[in-house]
Write a structure and sequence with these properties.
The structure is a single chain. By secondary structure, the protein is an all-beta fold. The two termini are 21 Å apart. The relative contact order is 0.17. The chain is globular. The protein has no helices and 29 strands.
Length: 414
Amino acid sequence: MHLCDVRAFEPIASSRLAREGASKGRTISPFQYNAFAGDRAVTYLQGLKAGDQPGTFLLVGANDSPGPKPLGLSYLGPLDRSKNSAANNSNGSGDWYEIAVPSSYGAAGTSVYGPDNLGGGLVNYVGAYTRNLGRKTPTPDNPSIVGFAYTGALDGSTKRGFRKVQGKVVDQDGDKVGGTYTFVHSVDGGLAVGNTDLADVDGRTGYFSLKSTAFLVSLATGKQKRIAFPSDDQDDRDLITHTAYGIWYNGNGSYTIAGGAGKVLQPGDGVQVGAGYLIDYDSVTGTFSNYTQFTYNNRKRTDLVTHFEGIYRDGRGRYWMPATSVSLNDDDDLTQASVVMVKRRRSGGFRDEARWQTLDVREDGTKTESVLTTGNSLYGNTVVGFANYPKSNGGVRQAGYVFKGDWLDPGQGL
């Protein structure tokens, strides 16, 4: 996601969010997987980690991710412009694999959101699979979208490596029930993070409802733990909803989680104020700490929803997040992708002000600038995401992109 999950955004006409600190880099777009010759599906690039060799990456995503039958994908190799004749002229000189949750789970389609490279051809994947309910309304016993975790061969062939992940949420009667929509977004160090809800994501901002639960799940045991935020009640009185989109293992049982905090100003309305956040988790004590929010370009504007989509920690202990910001101004309905860097204080918490760099994403050949850009995942100096390029007829051309920047010092990232 990743979203903000790219399912959350509709194409828009223009993108004029401030370009302060814009990061110039090299863009490869589209970066596309073709399942067959002449394939017109759009490839959504959603998760990124390092490959086994220098200059290579483990990339995951899906073709037609927002649809009812997405095709799950993974890729191992360099992120380059090469046309791969072994994969119907898909992009990249590495190897593409189709990943599918087994049909025995009732899966209609698969979308892979996060990878973790275990080495030796073994991986952890997390994501979600769709179910064909026909015209039936989703219920806790008959959910529409279910999360999954996978451990096994990187080509997805270890069928026993798949596990169902259905999150738990408190319903209107105060009972804990299974979510009708569960997405597992990111995995690192044996733990994954995701969200579950009784409602689908908001079509404008990508947030769930106030009933949304952000959770941790252990890939080894399947045990889930609700992420405890400082202002997070169980009966929605604070009118705040959280998402969890990225997790990074710091070592010694310490993890850092990234996502978004959205606030509903009036009950019944959608999210109207939103910020990215970081929070630490100690797996030894089971406690959360150092919760800190970050607004777009450190501004205090209340008409912007900002969301951290992932997280990466460099060799100097700095955290880098791909972010997506959406303006909720009626006059300026805009979306912008950024790279955000946050340092820690000597006391251990996070500094309040972050360094923001917006991404200048342009289409190969035409050099057309994307008018709606999401930053879905980051590793080292590389971001992957989703772009919308304007066409002369007023429509947009959608494509995945790879952006190679220079924000990290030499030796601090790929």
